[in-house]
Design a protein that fits this description.
The chain is an alpha+beta fold and about 220 residues long. It is about 50% helix and about 15% strand. A 6-stranded mixed β-sheet has the order 1-2-5-4-3-6, with no helix packed on it. A hairpin with a 2-residue loop joins strand 3 and strand 4. Helix 2 packs across helix 3. The radius of gyration is 29 Å and the shape is elongated.
Length: about 220
C-alpha cells in the first residue's frame, strides 16, 4: 500500500479505493459522471509512488481540510495533466500556503497604512505590492486624496483671508496645504490616468535621508 505524505492520513475506502485525509485542500478534482448532454470526465491524475491514480471523489471538509478517494488509473482515459504526490510536492504546497498566509496578513496591514505607504517612492510601493499583492496605485490614491482635500480647504482659507473673511487655517499651514494641493493633483492624475504609483516629495526626502544615514553608519 502506498504511504501518505506530509500531514495527510490514509484510509482504505470501499471498492479497493484509498482515501487521503488532507489537512489542507490540494486543488484536486473528482471524476464527473456522464449525463445525457455531456460525457464522463476523469478526476485529477495523480502520480503516487510510481503508479498513476485517479481522484474519483473530492470533498472539502470544515476547517479547510479535504478528503480524496483515489483508485488506480483506468488506461482507457487519456492523461492530459498529471500532478505528483510525494514529499517534495507536499513541501512546496505547505510553503505556498505559508506564503499566502503572510501575504494575506501583509495585505491587511498595508490597507490600514496605505495613506502613509503611498507617500513612499514608487519603487518602494511596488516592492510592497510584490510582497503583499496590495495594488501600489491604491496606496498612491489613499495618500493623495486626503492631501488633495486638505489642499482645497487650504486654498479656500487663503482666499477667505485675502478678502477679509475668517481663515480656516493659519497662513503658514494654508500655504503648505496649497503645495499639497498641487502635488496631490499631479499624483492623482498619474495614478488614475496612467495607472502607476508615484510618491511624494516628503516620502522621497525621508527615504533619501534614511538611506544616507544607514550608509554613513555602515561606513
Amino acid at each position: 500500500m502506498p504511504r501518505p505524505f506530509g500531514t495527510d492520513h490514509l484510509d482504505v475506502a470501499p471498492e479497493g479505493r484509498l482515501a487521503i485525509h488532507a489537512t489542507a485542500a490540494k486543488g484536486w478534482h473528482g471524476a464527473v459522471a456522464p449525463t445525457q448532454t455531456s460525457p464522463a470526465h476523469p478526476g485529477t491524475a495523480v502520480h503516487w509512488e510510481d503508479e498513476l491514480w485517479e481522484v474519483v471523489s473530492a470533498q472539502d471538509l470544515p476547517g479547510g481540510g479535504a478528503r480524496y478517494e483515489l483508485s488506480r488509473w483506468n488506461e482507457r482515459h487519456a492523461t492530459r495533466h498529471v500532478v505528483r504526490y510525494d514529499e517534495a510536492s507536499e513541501r512546496l504546497l505547505a510553503e505556498g500556503r505559508k506564503r499566502d498566509g503572510r501575504r494575506a496578513r501583509g495585505w491587511v496591514r498595508v490597507l490600514l497604512l496605505s495613506p502613509l505607504y503611498g507617500l513612499l517612492p514608487a519603487s518602494a510601493q511596488h516592492r510592497i505590492e510584490d510582497e503583499t499583492a496590495f495594488p501600489a496605485t491604491v496606496m498612491t490614491l489613499a495618500s493623495a486624496i486626503p492631501l488633495f482635500v486638505f489642499g482645497v480647504f487650504s486654498l479656500i482659507s487663503l482666499l477667505a483671508g485675502a478678502v477679509g473673511g475668517g481663515s480656516l487655517f493659519p497662513t503658514g499651514l494654508a500655504v503648505a496645504g496649497v503645495y499639497f494641493l498641487a502635488e496631490s493633483s499631479a499624483r492623482l492624475t498619474v495614478a488614475m490616468a496612467q495607472g502607476r504609483a508615484i510618491g511624494s516629495l516628503i516620502g522621497e526626502t525621508l527615504v533619501t535621508l534614511s538611506e544616507a544615514i544607514r550608509k554613513k553608519e555602515g561606513d
